[in-house]
Specification:
about 40% helix; mainly alpha
Length: about 70
Amino acid sequence: MPTELGQFPRNRRERVDPEAVGLEPDQKPQRVPGLRREEPAPLAGVSLGYYTRLEQGVSSTSTGSTGCW
């Protein structure tokens, strides 16, 4: 379930025209408006995995219940 924090980058990503941030237009039509998830991640200086987790509201902190010492 996306969090309010996760909704922010998604909403912004959907509003940005790829050409406005210096990306070449794709030859095939996009299924959704705005940038694809893999496009803003390097522009923001983060990995695609981190950007995806942020957008999806997945916590990256450990719960401490792994049993590892």
